[in-house]
Automatic annotation (TrEMBL):
It comes from Streptomyces ficellus. This is Arginine--tRNA ligase. SUPFAM superfamilies: Anticodon-binding domain of a subclass of class I aminoacyl-tRNA synthetases (SSF47323), Arginyl-tRNA synthetase (ArgRS), N-terminal 'additional' domain (SSF55190), Nucleotidylyl transferase (SSF52374). Monomer. GO terms for cellular component: cytoplasm. GO terms for biological process: arginyl-tRNA aminoacylation. It catalyses: tRNA(Arg) + L-arginine + ATP = L-arginyl-tRNA(Arg) + AMP + diphosphate. Residues 470-585 form the DALR anticodon binding domain. Residues 9-89 form the Arginyl tRNA synthetase N-terminal domain. HAMAP family: Arg_tRNA_synth. Pfam families: Arg_tRNA_synt_N, DALR_1, tRNA-synt_1d. The gene is argS. Its main location: cytoplasm.
Length: 585
């Protein structure tokens, strides 16, 4: 496995060397290279350099061009405008670089130079509650980030911080004690749907009783105390709720084509043993102070509408712990026991204030510092077609499973319309890959921080920036390669490239750099954009450059080679987003 430097980085280096050779007095200088429409690349760095040396930029540029000479790498370097360089690389350099990528399993993508350990907190639904579109976003974005960072060589620890603790369990457990058969199953094989409908029914019944019956309410409150003090019978019943919910969660994750491993599910309750100590450490160090009976952390810049400071409450005045104490304990665990140097939280932007206060508290306590930092990969709200938070017509939150099923149904219609020789089973399999892919891609292709409209018609459209478009591009390439028969993809550096081939080739060459940027900025939408552009470049190439009917056998092979590398790059990129690319569609 050999990593392949991109042409952009090779040219950048060559220019930097030429700059310091031509202008030794300037010291190391950045040529500021970028892709350009005029030529392959444009370098603007000479302008700043000329200013610094008080020279004429065009003269300096000419001097640099002379010192570059002509090489296998550079076909043409031209001074333009006030002192830019327009740079064209040779066809040979493009094909040779791509051939080196093709020879590598990782497509020449290097591992990150400084890999560390990142804990990603994502896919965190709540026990005994239906999953909704917010949980979809966290799961989809988190899963993509896990894959992208692991591919970059980072050690990734997954944490599913499920909501499995809290006073609501008092009511649920008490109800179950009084109605012991409510969670029983007919057979050992419970479906996720059945598990959730059991939980829903129980939840509604318990809630109704809680709201109407004062005595039940009192018994439920006592039950909370029993739960918190670790009463065995109570804990065993609590565990039944968790187990029943997990059956449901796993069925949804499975439908989402997402692997969630049980040991990575460490819910809020997983930190119960640490809560006391966390509070003690915060109080002893003076980070948290007593205020009106509660243990609080204050911030200069967090104030309520009345101008009074709003504290982070780590321990309530009644002695109970909340969400913040758990998250602070989780930070200690992740940093001190899991050895993380980066913590990423894929959580709704509406929890940003919580995380801001939690992170700041952890910094004051010394759990986070310059070497160990935390970020919230905050995502926006999923909106309905009306631009308001996505709800059913009755105003209820939309059940995630219903959405997934609908997407799969729509996808089945699209697949069936195009299908020529697919069996019903194959159509069903493709429909799941297309439908789930459509949902994931729609989410991943907009910047996470933005809200987006959930529009299934658009998501499964064959035209435009959708996963189906990318999946079809992939399947089309595979079909061309199948049709090629004896002609096999092979790079021929001596074959001249048409403009569309060069554009496709130079874009293919950017895969590694795109991934590196995505991994360090936590912006999967940039990978989606890259892949969409790749498919667009391919479409242009395909319409301008006959592949199987190219002029010479070498040209046929070289074009097949471009097809093949495009397919592999699409396949890899989509897989990193958690999206399948069927071989035939
Ligand atoms: N369960 C929470 C919710 O549904 C999300 C948990 C986020 N993670 C965390 N460490 N607080 O809103």
């Amino acid at each position: 496995m050999a990593s392949v430097p991109s042409l952009a980085s090779t040219v950048q280096q060559r220019l930097a060397d030429a700059l310091s050779a031509a202008l030794p007095e300037a010291g190391p200088a950045d040529p500021l290279l970028r892709r350009s429409d005029r030529a392959d690349f444009q370098a603007n760095g000479i302008l700043a350099l000329a200013k610094k040396l008080k020279g004429n930029p065009r003269e300096l540029a000419t001097k640099v061009v002379e010192s570059l000479g002509s090489t296998d790498l550079l076909k043409d370097v031209e001074v333009s405008g006030p002192g830019f360089l327009n740079i064209t690389v040779t066809d040979r350099a493009i094909t040779e670089t791509l051939a080196a990528r093709a020879a590598d399993d990782r497509l020449g993508v290097p591992y990150a130079e400084q890999a560390g350990t990142t804990v990603i907190d994502y896919a965190q639904p709540n026990v005994a509650k239906e999953m909704h579109v917010g949980h979809l976003r966290s799961a989809v974005i988190g899963d993509a980030m896990v894959k992208i960072m692991e591919f970059a060589g980072e050690k990734v620890v997954r944490r599913h911080h499920i909501g499995d603790w809290g006073t609501q369990f008092g009511m649920l457990i008490q109800y179950l004690i009084e109605h012991p058969h409510e969670l029983d199953h007919k057979d050992a094989d419970v479906s996720g749907e059945e598990a959730m409908s059991n939980l829903n029914r129980l939840y509604k019944a318990a809630r109704a009783l809680f709201d109407s019956d004062e005595e039940f309410k009192a018994r439920s409150r006592d039950r909370v105390v029993a739960l918190q003090s670790g009463d065995e019978e109570t804990l065993a019943l609590w565990q039944r709720f968790v187990d029943e919910s997990k059956i449901y969660f796993y069925s949804v994750f499975n439908k989402l084509d997402m692997e969630i491993d049980d040991p990575d599910v460490v819910g809020e309750s997983g930190y119960n043993d640490m809560l006391d100590e966390t509070c003690r450490l915060l109080e002893d160090s003076g980070v948290a102070v007593r205020s009106e009976g509660a243990l609080c952390v204050f911030f200069d810049d967090v104030k309520g509408p009345d101008g009074n400071p709003v504290p982070l409450i780590v321990k309530k005045s009644n002695g109970g712990y909340g969400y913040a104490a758990t998250d602070l304990s989780a930070i200690r665990d992740r940093v001190q026991n899991l050895g993380a140097d980066t913590l990423v939280y894929v959580v709704d932007a509406r929890q940003s204030l919580h995380f801001k206060m939690v992170f700041e508290t952890a910094r004051r306590a010394g759990w986070l510092n310059d070497q160990v930092h935390a970020v919230q990969l905050a995502f926006g709200t999923v909106l309905g077609k009306d631009g308001k938070p996505f709800k059913t017509r009755e105003g209820e939150t939309v059940r995630l499973v219903d959405l997934l099923d609908e997407a799969i149904d729509r996808a089945a219609a699209v697949v069936r319309e195009k299908a020529q020789d697919l069996t019903e089973d194959e159509i069903a399999e493709r429909a799941a890959q297309v439908g789930i892919g459509a949902i994931k891609y729609a989410d991943l292709s907009t910047s996470a921080s933005r809200d987006y409209k959930f529009d299934l018609d658009q998501m499964v459209s064959l035209n435009g920036d959708t996963s189906v478009y990318l999946q079809y591009a992939y399947a089309r390439i595979k079909s061309i390669i199948r049709k090629a028969g004896d002609a096999k993809p092979a790079a021929h550096p001596e074959v001249a490239l048409a403009p569309a081939e060069r554009a496709l080739g130079l874009h293919l060459d950017q895969f590694g750099e795109t991934l590196a940027e995505v991994a360090s900025s936590y912006e999967p939408h940039k990978l989606a954009a890259y892949l969409y552009q790749l498919a667009s470049h391919y479409t242009t190439f395909y319409s301008e450059c006959p592949v199987l009917k190219a002029d010479t056998p070498e040209q046929v092979e070289n074009r097949l080679f471009l097809c093949d590398l495009t397919a592999r790059t699409l396949h890899r990129g989509m897989a990193l987003l958690g999206i399948r690319t069927p071989e035939r569609l």
